[in-house]
Amino acid sequence: MWCHLCKKLSDTILCPTCEEAIRRAGYDFLFTHRCPVCGQPVLDATYACPFCSKGILSYGPYGKTLASLIRHFKFGGERSLTPLLSGLYIPLLKRVTSPIIIPIPCSREGYRRRGFDQSEVIASYLARKEGYACLSLFNRHKGMQHKYLSKEQRLGEQGIQLTHSKKKHHQ
User: pLDDT tens track of the chain, all 171 residues?
Assistant: First the structure.
C-alpha cells in the first residue's frame, strides 16, 4: 500500500510522517487556548469560538497537508479516505452534547463532476459508524457555486434553501 499523500510505501492509508503532519495541522495542536464555554480550541479565549457563535466545527485550516488530503478525497474520488477524514471530526464532536450533523450539499455541477457529495459521504459515515444524528435539511444549489457568492448572496435567494421533501434521516 502507498501513502495517499507522499506516495511512499506504507502499511496504512497514511505513512507515520503524514499522519503526524495531519495531527499538527489541527487546531488542537495549533491553539493552546480553549473556549471557556464548549472547550473547542481557539486562538484567543476572549472571543466567541466559531462553534459557540455559528455552530461550525473545523478540524484545522485549509493548508498544505490537510488541503492535499481533502483534494485527493474530493477531486480525486478517493473515497477510501472517508474513514480518515471522518475520524478527524470525532474528537471535536465528542466535546459537544448531542451533536447533530447537517451536511451542506455541494452544487449540482460539483455533484455531476464528482459523482458524489463529499459532505454527505462524511456525514453519513459518522452517522452509520459512530451513531451521530445526521439531518439532510438543504436542497442542492442550482446556481453559482457558493464559494463564489458573497455572504449576502448565500443568505439571500441564491443561497441554500431548506428541502421540502422528507429525505432519509440517519441516526
Answer: 899 899 999 999 999 999 999 999 999 999 999 998 888 899 998 888 888 888 888 899 999 899 999 999 999 988 999 999 999 999 989 988 889 998 888 888 888 899 999 999 999 999 999 999 999 887 766 666 666 677 677 666 555 555 554 444 455
Please state, in angstroms and rounded to a whole number, the distance separating the CA atoms of residues 42 and 48: 9
For residues 33-58, one letter each, b for 16 or more C-beta atoms within 10 angstroms of the residue's C-beta and e for the rest, the string is eebeebebbbeeeeeebebeeeeebe
Kindly report the CA angle at 12 between 7 and 14, in degrees rounded to 5? Answer: 50
Helix, strand, coil share (%) of the chain residues, nearest 5: 45, 10, 50
d(CA 90, CA 28): 12
pTM reported for the whole predicted model: 0.79
CA distance 171 to 134: 6
